[in-house]
Amino acid sequence: MIKKLNYIALIMVFLIPLFAVPTNVLANNNENKTLRELYNELLKVEEELKRVNNDKSLTKSKINQIEKNIVRLDNEVVAIGNAIVKTEKEIVKLNENIASKDKEIKELMKFFQLSTGENMYLEYAFGASSMTDFIYRLAVVEQLTKYNNQMIDDMNNMITQQEKKTKELAAQQKNAQVKRRELSSEQVKLGDRVYSLNENSMTLSEEIADAKKTIKNYEKLGCKPNDILSVCSRVNGDVSFARPTLQGLITCGWGCYGGHRAIDIGGIAGENIYATAAGLVVDITWGSTCGGNYVTIQHKVNGKSYASRYMHMASIRVGLHQNVTKDTVLGTVGGYAGGYDRCTTGPHLHFAIANGVYGQDFWSFGSYAINPVNLINFPPAGVWFSSRYRMY
Ligand SMILES: [Zn+2]
């Protein structure tokens, strides 16, 4: 008895996943969380992004300050350089002055020696008009020599001072250059920091965009803040597709009229439309625009995600977030020209299927649409069928 029960249990384990077990639309690690937890996670990432962006703008303003300081230091180095050149010119000038004073002294000395030496009389004979004049001249020469010597001493002092000043300036210039080098390497470091903060901010922005998309999708699937996501996003699984109407014919196939990414099933005004496979109603649109009223259903068929869409409906009989089976009537075929639906020439069902998860992988079927005929057995265009499963 126990053995037999075990056997049955084992069969059940294998069969349940194939037929009955509802599967989660979003296969990721959010399953055991609530929608509120996703909101909180999103908030955290948004705060992190804010912090990174603040850090970035702070670092940028630091870099601006450093750039200003570098410009200031460069100007300082140039100004000091000019001052050094000026001081050096002054030293040259002073040296020239000293040389000329020296020359004067030497000439005076020559005169003095000449006058006090054996040529005294000669000098007296040629230069001075009298002895008094001669003595007076000697006194003046002595005074002048003294004066010139004083001048040379003064100028030598000035040269010493100017040389000292030049050394100080050179030291200042060196300091400015060292400081500038430090600022430059700081600037490079901060630049690297901005770069990595930028990368960080881009990653966080992507994370935020993804999180928002995921949240929007769970909301679309009917999840409320306190719902466990694996429960509220549950989609009935299925193992096959069926035609969405009991009868009809394909009046416009995949690619007809150029770029038709669906099939039109005609000849069935007012008839019931069924879900092509078990699933969850993820969108109901009421509208008088092209396509009129339509229903979108999310499916999981043999573990693969699809969405199906039924357009030009005259009535809709399901609700948003309702779980459906293949036998659920979604509504009735419309598409009457001149009615609520602007974009049709006669009653028909526009039936589209897309690969993936609606609201996560795509919102518009567009490039995700696949030819329904590749998944569901349909007779060729223009051939009438009168069953959802049999060929004709
Ligand atoms: Zn169509």
Please tell me about this protein's structure.
There is one protein chain. The protein is of the alpha+beta class and 392 residues long. The chain folds into 2 domains: 39-217, Helix Hairpins; 235-374, Glucose Permease (Domain IIA), CATH 2.70.70. Helix content is 52%, strand content 16%. It has 6 helices and 13 strands. The strands form 2 sheets. Strands 3, 4, 5, 6, 7, 8, 9, 10, 11, 12 and 13 form an 11-stranded mixed beta sheet that branches. Strand 7 (279-285) and strand 8 form a beta hairpin. Helix 2 (35-116) runs antiparallel to helix 4 (131-220). The longest helix is centred in the middle third of the chain and has 90 residues, at 131-220. It starts with a helix and ends in a 22-residue tail after the last strand. It binds zinc ion. Residues 252, 260, 262, 264, 350 line the site of zinc ion (ZN).
Note the run of SSEs as H and E.
HEHHHHEEEHEEEEEEEEE
Termini gap: 48 Å
Task: Enumerate how many helices there are, as a single number.
Answer: 6
Instruction: Name the helicity range.
Output: 40-55%
Produce a short descriptive summary.
This protein has 392 residues and is of the alpha+beta class. 52% of the residues lie in helices and 16% in strands.
List the keywords.
Glucose Permease (Domain IIA); 52% helix; 11-stranded mixed beta sheet; two-stranded antiparallel ribbon; alpha+beta; 6 helices; rod-shaped; 392 residues; Helix Hairpins; binds zinc ion
